[in-house]
Amino acid sequence: MSTAKSDRTPHLVLGIETSCDETGVALYETGTGLLAHEVFTQIDMHRIYGGVVPELASRDHVRRVVPLAREVLASAGRALPELTGIAYTAGPGLIGALLVGAGVAQALAFALGIPALGVHHMEAHLLAPMLEPDPPDFPFLALLVSGGHTMLVDVAALGSYRVLGESLDDAAGEAFDKTAKLLGLDYPGGPAVEKLALNGDPTRFRFPRPMTDRPGLDFSFSGLKTFTATTARKHADDPGAKADIARAFSDAVVDTFVIKCRRALRQTGRKTLLVAGGVSANRALRAGLGTLAEEMNVQVRYPALQFCTDNGAMVAYAGSLRLAAGASSANAFSVRPRWSLEELLPP
Ligand code: KG4
Ligand code: ZN
User: Do 150 and 42 fall into the same domain?
Assistant: First the structure.
């Protein structure tokens, strides 16, 4: 990564992610790489409610952040005074949850006399594939598919983001989660729908590929959700239909992304596609985009599976790039539950 390499002082950055239902803490050193990371997922706590309960999430982050930070430092054999900066997710996300990470990061940075930096959660997701060996170079096209966002972004450089298209309603992960609920599957729904779809008959149902028959790069998943719900109701007496519905839904989502990525790659002429966010863990999506990459002679890159969903490593990494370039947030901090990626500037 050019920004990190051009700065000769090594930066040792603690990254803290608390935007939703995962507490992630990691330690990243410029020049060396990721030293340690830990994620505590609150899934078991929220499961009985069928989704994330924001206040419970905040309270659990309070319990986890400091012990996880201690663990990460200990497993890397490093101590607090060695830190040169602290990065935390400042948004978008759940406001109470964000405030926990921001509060701990700012207090710790103040006590240590080092800078703290609020990081954009989607920028962190977007950069996660760069944690892998042989990271791709800017510029590239990015497909961000998480529980809260679905976006195609043209990335010229760190901080230079042009959103080419986004979801007008549900995010891709949200569509997976709602489909899972409809089919009586566990929360979070993405992995459960993926697994069930493997046993489904791809020829039994054909679901619409939303917004692919008109120009543009925006997405819409609410119509697909309604179609899925109607089909599930119609076949409620047939337990075997569930896998076929999951398969039809998954095929429709994958096709939609393949069509829009093909269009965006043609439009921008980019030769690399980065895919990140929780849904980038989906193997059917990876297979579909793999075929597209061959067809178009482009590279497609993903984060490691453990860094597709929320984690501290991507926050530590994004923070390290910006801190190395001299950025920091003032001690008086604010978090932003809603925050457009296009408001970011290069460091
Ligand atoms: O990026 P992420 O951890 O959190 C947000 O920033 O939203 O994404 C979580 C989302 C959830 O909706 C989850 O169901 C989905 O990613 N997800 C998947 C898979 N793994 C996680 N969706 C489809 N297939 C998967 N294997
Ligand atoms: Zn996320």
Answer: no
175 CA to centre of ligand 2 in angstroms = 15
Range of 223's domain?
138-302
179 and 66 belong to one structural domain: no
Question: Is 133 inside any structural domain?
Answer: no
Q: How far away, in angstroms, is 282 Cα from ligand 2 center?
A: 15
Element (H, E) at 117: strand 116-120
Cβ–ligand 1 contact at 189 (below 6 Å): yes
Cβ–ligand 1 contact at 310 (below 6 Å): yes
Q: N- to C-terminal Cα distance for the chain?
A: 14
**C-alpha 189 to ligand 1 mean position (Å):** 8
Q: For residue 18, is it within any domain?
A: yes
The CATH number given to whatever domain includes residue 260 is: 3.30.420.40
For residue 146, the ligand closest to its alpha carbon is 1
Reference 284, options 196, 224, 212, 205; nearest CA is: 196
User: What is the count of structural domains for the chain?
Assistant: 2
DSSP state of 344: -
- Token pair in block for residue 302: 């993903």
The single-letter DSSP state of residue 329 is: B
pLDDT string in tens for the chain (347-residue length): 334 444 567 899 999 999 999 999 999 999 999 999 999 999 999 998 988 999 999 999 999 999 999 999 999 999 999 999 999 999 999 999 999 999 999 999 999 999 999 999 999 999 999 999 999 999 999 999 999 999 999 999 999 999 999 999 999 999 999 999 999 998 889 999 999 999 999 999 999 998 888 899 999 999 999 999 999 999 999 999 999 999 999 999 999 999 999 999 999 999 999 999 999 999 999 999 999 999 999 999 999 999 999 999 999 999 999 999 888 887 667 889 899 999 999 98
